[in-house]
Specification:
single chain, alpha+beta, disordered C terminus
Length: 118
Amino acid sequence: MALPIPPGSLSRRAMEDGPQLLLRERPSLDLEGLQPFGDRSRPSASLMFAPIRSGGGAVGVLTVQSYSPDAYTEADLVTLQALADHCGGRWSASRRRRRCTGPRAITGASSSWPTTLS
């Protein structure tokens, strides 16, 4: 299920400009474009956003958040981006596999695979 990413949000900024690290001394609930989760009365103090890239563009965002101030560093952001890049590679491979196997999977047409197991 695809969710819209509002213009101006940190997720959109990560998709357009690259990874984002936000460390807030005084967290507030009014951060534009964020959907609260977890303890909704307690905003995150430390947030990281990394674009999930595939085929030369961003297809999503991986985010990690903490209630603790100064929970992440630039090195953590680099690690999160590496994980997001891995996810993007797997996403691309999955899409290629579905394109290649889609019609055969639907029709069952394959002359090279046995129809019964011995």
